[in-house]
Structure formats: C-alpha cells, structure tokens
Amino acid sequence: MISNSKFKRYILLISAAIAFASGAGCSGSRDSALSLVEEPAVIKVPVTNFRYVSSALPTMNLKTLIDESCVKCHNAEITPDVPLTNYLEVYTRGVLVKRAVQPGGRMNKYLPFDYDKIMEWYEAGMPE
Hints:
Radius of gyration: 29 Å
Order of helices and strands: HHHHH
Shape: rod-shaped
Largest sheet: none
Structural class: mainly alpha
Distance between the termini: 75 Å
Helix content: 25-40%
C-alpha cells in the first residue's frame, strides 16, 4: 500500500508532467517539450572583409585584382567567351573563376593569383 506522502508526491509529479506537456508557463512559440528556455536561432553566415567593389577599404575590393589580372583577356572583344568585366559576369562564373585560379588551375600558368583572398570571397557568397 502507498503511504499518504508518497501518494501526494506521485500526484504532484503527474500534475507537473501534464502542465509541462501542455506548455503551461511557456510562451508557446516553441514546442514546450523541446526546451524550457527560449533561445534565438543561430544562423552561421560566412563573414569576409573582401567585396567585389563596395568595401570601404580599397585594398579589400577584388575588382582591382580582377581588372589587373583577368580583364586583359576576359573581355567582350577577345576570343574566350568568358568576359569578366563586371560583377554580374564574375558572379555568374564564380565556380569557373574559383577553379581557374586555384593552385594548379588553368590561369596560374599566366599569372599568380591570391587564391586565399578569392576563396574567402567565394565562400562568403561573393558579396558585391
């Protein structure tokens, strides 16, 4: 037979479980069974100081690097049909640019590239 104090504890435990399951005391924005504490969602966004052209620091803009290294050959007037004269052209060909300038890539035989700078920019989503 269950003693009176054990019975009371059992009833309190059951009522606490029911209150917890029903979300009593919670804001209701989340499933109360998942968390007792409201936590903001954490979204990891790659951060880079490099921009194509809109960085406040001119040394962080990649347009000058691309203009000096790529546009001599990659423009609308030269045979390779891969112009890289503006942001949209570079952005839409991002994978090609990444492959071409990587160590051992096709363009390294013509010019050395700052691959780390270009990769950081590429991995951050190629911000303008």
